[in-house]
Specification:
The complex is a heterodimer of chains A (about 160) and B (about 100). By secondary structure, chain A is an alpha/beta fold. Chain A contains four helices and seven strands, in the order αββββααββαβ. Helices cover about 25% and strands about 15% of the residues of chain A. In chain A, the strands form two sheets. In chain A, strands 1, 3, 5, 6 and 7 form a five-stranded mixed sheet that branches. The longest helix of chain A has 18 residues. Chain A is globular, with a radius of gyration of 17 Å. The relative contact order of chain A is 0.25. With about 100 residues, chain B is mostly helical. Chain B has one domain. In chain B, helix 2 links the parallel strand 1 and strand 2. Chain B has a two-stranded parallel ribbon with strand order 1-2. Helices cover about 45% and strands about 10% of the residues of chain B. The chains are: A alpha/beta (about 160), B mainly alpha (about 100). Chains A and B meet through helix 1, helix 2, helix 3 and strand 7 of A and helix 1, helix 2 and helix 4 of B.
Chain lengths: ~160, ~100
C-alpha cells in the first residue's frame, strides 16, 4: 500500500501548526507538440543536487542551480534535509537521471536533452515562494531553451 | 515522477507516473542503470500516452518483493538520519567547495 504522506507527515510534525498542502481542483494541460523522439526534453529535480562548487541550499531557499547536461557523477553532490540522501549521494541518478537521459539522447529515444538541467531543494514550506518566485524563473529558462517537454523529479 | 501518491493527487500535475519506492528513489535504485532506464522509459512514454489532464499512471515496480516494511517505517518519528550540526555542515560545505575550486 502506498504511504499516505499527508497524514503521516501531519503526525510526524504534530507539535507544529498543520501544514497547508497545495490542493488544486484541476490540472493544467499543454499538448505535446511533436513525438518525444523529436522533442527537446528538460530535466529538473527537487533533490538538492549541486554541481561542483555551487553554494549549498538553505532552509526555505527557493533558488535553483543550473547543472550542465554533461556533468559527471563525481561533480555532483546533494544537500537536502527532507529525505535520506545516502543513496542519491552514491548515485544521483536515483533522483536526477542525467546519465540515463544522456543515453536516451544518444539512442534517439528523445530528440535532445536540454542544457542545462535544473535542480533545487524541495524542502520549501512556502508554496507561495515556489509559485511566485521559483516557478516563473524556471518557465523563463524553459522558454528560452525552446524545450518541448519537462520532466520533474521530486525527491 | 512521483513516489508520494496522495500529494500528487492533491497537486494535480498535467501528467504523472507513480513509482512506489521510498522517497529519494523516484527514478530508481542506486547503481542499477537497467532499472533506472526502465522506469524512465515508462515515464517518458506517459508524455505520449496520457490524454486526460491530471492522469497518474501507476507503474508496477516493487521496491522489495520479500519485504515491504519500509512502508510502515518511513516518515515516522526517528526515521530521518541525524543531520550534521551547523559547524559540521559549514565544514563539509567549505571542504566541498575547496575541492572543486582546486580542479
Amino acid at each position: 500500500m502506498p504511504i499516505a504522506y499527508i497524514p503521516r507527515t501531519r503526525e510526524l510534525y504534530s507539535s507544529y501548526e498543520p501544514y497547508r498542502w497545495v490542493v488544486n481542483e484541476t490540472a493544467p494541460w499543454t499538448p505535446l507538440r511533436r513525438p518525444l523522439t523529436r522533442s527537446k526534453l528538460a530535466l529538473m529535480s527537487s533533490g538538492g543536487i549541486l554541481y561542483r562548487d555551487q553554494p549549498r541550499f538553505h532552509r526555505e531557499d527557493a533558488s535553483y542551480r543550473p547543472v550542465p547536461k554533461n556533468a559527471r557523477r563525481d561533480e555532483l553532490s546533494i544537500w537536502h534535509f527532507g529525505y535520506p540522501t545516502a543513496d542519491a549521494e552514491r548515485d544521483p541518478n536515483c533522483v536526477f537521471p542525467l546519465e540515463r537521459l544522456r543515453e536516451f539522447e544518444a539512442e534517439g529515444v528523445i530528440g535532445e536533452l536540454s542544457d542545462p538541467a535544473f535542480t533545487f531543494m524541495g524542502g520549501i514550506y512556502s508554496a507561495r515562494k515556489v509559485r511566485d518566485e521559483l516557478a516563473p524563473k524556471i518557465v523563463a529558462e524553459l522558454k528560452a531553451a525552446h524545450a518541448d517537454a519537462f520532466l520533474l523529479v521530486p525527491a | 515522477m512521483t513516489s508520494a501518491l496522495d500529494i500528487t493527487q492533491a497537486v494535480k500535475p498535467p501528467r504523472a507516473v507513480f513509482v512506489n519506492f521510498p522517497l529519494g528513489h523516484q527514478t530508481g535504485k542506486p547503481d542499477d542503470p537497467a532499472l533506472q532506464r526502465s522506469i524512465l522509459r515508462d515515464a517518458l512514454a506517459a508524455f505520449e500516452s496520457i490524454e486526460a489532464p491530471g492522469t497518474i499512471v501507476e507503474l508496477p515496480y516493487v521496491w522489495d518483493q520479500a519485504d515491504n516494511s519500509w512502508e510502515e517505517r518511513d516518515y515516522r518519528p526517528g526515521f530521518m538520519p541525524r543531520r550534521p550540526g551547523r559547524e559540521e555542515a559549514d565544514r563539509i560545505e567549505a571542504e566541498r567547495r575547496a575541492r572543486f575550486a582546486r580542479v
